[in-house]
Amino acid sequence: MEKRWWKESVVYQIYPRSFCDSNGDGIGDLNGITGKLDYLKELGIDVIWLSPVYKSPNDDNGYDISDYQAIMEEFGTMEDFDRMLATAHEKGIKIMMDLVVNHTSDEHKWFIESRKSTDNPYRDYYIWRPAKEDGSLPNNWGSCFSGPAWEYDKTTDMYFLHLFSKKQPDLNWNNKETVDNIIKIMKDWAEFGIDGFRLDAINYLDKDLTFPDVEPMPGSKYGFGTEFYANRPKVNDHFARLNKEVFAPYNMMTVAEVAYIEPQVAREYCGIHRPELDMLYIFDLLNFDQEGYDKFKPLPFDVKAFKQAIFHWQDVVKDFGHLALFFSNHDQARSVSRFGCDSEEYHDLSCKMQGNAMYMLKGTPYIYQGEEIGMTNLDYTDVKDFHDVEVLATYEENVIKNGEPAEKWLKLFNSRSRDCGRSPMQWDDSKNGGFSVGTPWQKTNGNYKSINVRVQENDENSPLNFYKELLRVRKNLKSVQKGVVIPFDIESENTMCYARTFEDETVISVNNFKNTTCKAELPQGKFKVLLTNYGDVKEIEKEITLRPYECITAIKE
To answer: What angle do CA 221, 222, 224 make, to 5 degrees?
Structure first.
């Protein structure tokens, strides 16, 4: 495969509202990001994935865009964006913007016009349907954020489709004018100088316009009609046009957020002979510890299930394409709490182990802000501390309407909600973790005095300094950059172990996901240790006894 700049890069995802506030209004901003670029450079970052900074009413924290070509005022100005972009480029860091084109905000000018009348020129920019003959909803599809996927609009006595919030109407990609305008927007940003797009919910663009009913979810009137809107035939046609007119001409990095995806479809999206997209960001990799796609029905963490999912997709892409490697993001709980241990005894060990386990695999590492210091899940005691539209809708449905115990749902929100990943970045032990001198838009996690960047910068054994070394080692190993993944010790219920080989180089990654000791059978040969979170292992061979949350990366001598 042709070498591309993004293949050997490390990506850092920034959630701007929660990263760094430069002006004291409690909201992270573009100038705050600019001021932290040296930190990211020292960490070893090549690309920043910037969650949406476009103008938005913030119903879904920026993923509801009201103007694609304007910056949200609370983040700054276009001049601030230009300065951030130029400064990043000076430091050798590229900028990839998050782009949401499955839907817009209901405050976007297109939708404002669309809802005025059935013959408005913008009507077909969105998906409108009348009620059924009996007056019920057009179908029984459920929104990803709870409740129905249809919202009534009295002006024209019709419903519009919203797979997410009711303030996020879905765009109609069967309308050529819609697509033409989206392509123009993409080209304008490419001309501005950005280096790529992360494409949100991009495999939902092609809907079955007959809108059949589906089997309801247990205990609900609504069902997920994913087979009728995810990964349908026309999606690839859209990708092909976007690549031809935008991605290829501007040498852009493109990563597609996809869910409900099978291997054959993945091959169609980013295979050797389908160059439209560079890599896939597969959410399904993090669904093994819950019932289906319901994050609020958690299951115990099963190491075997986890590594089976990981190694399955590593095998799928061994001869084609490219994967995003990630443990967390703005839509997920904190990984050290979810898959490791956030107790004082094991926090640092399990944080380091997770990085070692994930980022020696085949693909591009995506580190979510705060992951490198082991930021944890929340400790909120009041539903008013939460901001996520998904949380508020779920609370309304289950506590307010159905009378379920608030304590049950608060516990779930503190451990599983998207707000877990959106609390302010913890820079130091000053007020609000150094995020802002004002009142943060979202409450700071109470452990910021012990878990923060400044403390860890001054501790050579910290997770932060381990991550710096991890990324340095990764970039210097040809087997990790180009080699195949060969799992071993596969039946273990504690460990995730694999080898990476390319030409004459073999590297192994050995990781214990439990707080107990266990043994791991190693491949033949002696291995020199390159990374370890205990610090007292220099060489390994044959069989090794791993301590709680121990990790080792070693090269064959």
So the answer is: 155
